User: Which sequence fits this backbone?
Protein backbone atom coordinates (compact mmCIF):
# COMPACT_ATOMS: atom_id res chain seq x y z
CA UNK A 1 0.00 0.00 0.00
CA UNK A 2 1.33 3.41 -0.97
CA UNK A 3 2.18 5.95 1.69
CA UNK A 4 -0.17 8.92 1.79
CA UNK A 5 0.65 12.18 3.49
CA UNK A 6 -1.73 13.33 6.24
CA UNK A 7 -2.75 16.36 4.16
CA UNK A 8 -3.54 14.22 1.13
CA UNK A 9 -5.47 11.78 3.34
CA UNK A 10 -7.52 14.67 4.76
CA UNK A 11 -8.35 15.89 1.25
CA UNK A 12 -9.45 12.41 0.20
CA UNK A 13 -11.66 12.03 3.27
CA UNK A 14 -13.21 15.46 2.69
CA UNK A 15 -13.89 14.50 -0.94
CA UNK A 16 -15.56 11.23 0.09
CA UNK A 17 -17.72 12.89 2.76
CA UNK A 18 -19.13 15.20 0.08
CA UNK A 19 -20.46 12.08 -1.72
CA UNK A 20 -22.49 10.96 1.29
CA UNK A 21 -26.25 11.32 1.04
CA UNK A 22 -27.34 12.55 4.45
CA UNK A 23 -30.87 11.72 5.64
CA UNK A 24 -33.41 14.46 6.08
CA UNK A 25 -34.74 15.42 9.51
CA UNK A 26 -38.05 13.77 8.67
CA UNK A 27 -36.31 10.48 7.71
CA UNK A 28 -34.31 10.50 10.94
CA UNK A 29 -37.43 11.04 13.04
CA UNK A 30 -39.38 8.29 11.24
CA UNK A 31 -36.61 5.72 11.47
CA UNK A 32 -35.93 6.58 15.12
CA UNK A 33 -39.60 6.04 15.98
CA UNK A 34 -39.60 2.76 14.06
CA UNK A 35 -36.53 1.57 15.95
CA UNK A 36 -38.11 2.45 19.32
CA UNK A 37 -41.30 0.58 18.40
CA UNK A 38 -39.40 -2.53 17.28
CA UNK A 39 -37.26 -2.46 20.44
CA UNK A 40 -40.40 -2.19 22.61
CA UNK A 41 -42.04 -5.11 20.79
CA UNK A 42 -38.91 -7.27 20.94
CA UNK A 43 -38.26 -6.55 24.63
CA UNK A 44 -41.89 -7.34 25.51
CA UNK A 45 -41.73 -10.59 23.54
CA UNK A 46 -38.47 -11.69 25.16
CA UNK A 47 -39.76 -10.74 28.62
CA UNK A 48 -42.76 -13.05 28.23
CA UNK A 49 -40.69 -15.85 26.69
CA UNK A 50 -38.25 -15.58 29.60
CA UNK A 51 -41.08 -15.71 32.13
CA UNK A 52 -42.62 -18.79 30.47
CA UNK A 53 -39.31 -20.61 30.16
CA UNK A 54 -38.46 -19.78 33.77
CA UNK A 55 -41.81 -21.20 34.87
CA UNK A 56 -41.26 -24.38 32.79
CA UNK A 57 -37.75 -24.91 34.23
CA UNK A 58 -39.02 -24.48 37.77
CA UNK A 59 -41.83 -26.92 37.03
CA UNK A 60 -39.46 -29.53 35.56
CA UNK A 61 -36.93 -29.22 38.38
CA UNK A 62 -39.62 -29.33 41.03
CA UNK A 63 -38.89 -25.83 42.28
CA UNK A 64 -42.32 -24.52 41.37
CA UNK A 65 -44.68 -23.16 43.93
Assistant:
Amino acid sequence: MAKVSPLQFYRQVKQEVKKVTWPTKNEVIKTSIMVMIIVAIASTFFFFVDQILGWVVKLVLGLGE
Observations:
- The mean pLDDT is 92.
- The radius of gyration is 25 Å.
